[in-house]
Amino acid sequence: ANGQTLQEALDARTGTPSASDTRTPTQRRAASLTSLARLTLDAGILQPGARIRPHLSVHVPYDTLTRLIQASRPTPSPGTASPGAGQGGALVIPGTLNHSTLLGAEPATLADGTPIAPQLLARLACQGSFHRVIFGPDSQILDSGREERLFTAAQTRAIIARDRTCRYPDCHAPPGEGEIHHSLWWYDQHGPTAAHLGILLCWHHHDHVHRHNITIERTGDHWTFTRPDGTTITTLHTAA
């Protein structure tokens, strides 16, 4: 009975794949199990009385964070003067990191000490909260800043109202299953992140664009997703 309960939950989360979904059934079931965990943690129903509710923690040395910000700096398109600007005033969210900037940087780690790749750190930073802790030479805590999010609650609501669902081609996942994708460079160099600099992506496609170095360009209300080889990811008819 327990096995059937789990299978029913996985089936309900997995649903029918879109025409562009190339994952195997095993990969899609694994993603469904992860999304069930995310939904539960985001809902805040586990240990609601805890001083710090269960969440994923990543420890990032300050030098590593500053290097990551520089590595995510958008490259200006030909004929434009500012980073992140495309032809005709289009907004470009870069899909690659300048890894030469990160050479020699101390890796960020999960709470158990497991190091993570810069690409994953950039993906987690998109939706994560930042909490600054400064240590002295003998590991004494000198300062502990308040937690900050890259997007305010109001900005997040505005992006959700504009995008409605995941903006990746052929995906219609609702806002409750997504995160805001953007560039760390904008937040650090141009003050508080503005709503027009973000895009709503579901968990799977947020992982996907970071893992596959996909660049996203917005012109008006249209989003264009481009692979590193320059090909465009087009919309296919969704499978029935």
Could you characterize what this model shows?
It is built from 7 helices and 11 strands. It is of the alpha+beta class and 240 residues long. The strands form 5 sheets. It has a 3-stranded antiparallel beta sheet, with no helix packed on it. The longest helix has 19 residues, at 25-43. The mean pLDDT is 83.
Kindly state the percentage of residues in helix.
25-40%
Which spans have pLDDT < 50 for at least 5 consecutive residues? none
Which outline best applies?
globular
Q: Order of strands in the sheet with the most strands?
A: 2-10-11
Report the average pLDDT across residues: 83
The portion of residues forming beta strands comes to 15-25%
What does the radius of gyration come to? Answer: 19 Å
Give the CA-CA distance, first to last residue.
Answer: 30 Å
Structural class per helix/strand content?
A: alpha+beta
Major sheet details:
3 strands, antiparallel
Number of helices: 7
What is the subunit organization of this protein? single chain
* SSE succession: HHEHEEHEEEEHEHEHEE
Number of strands: 11
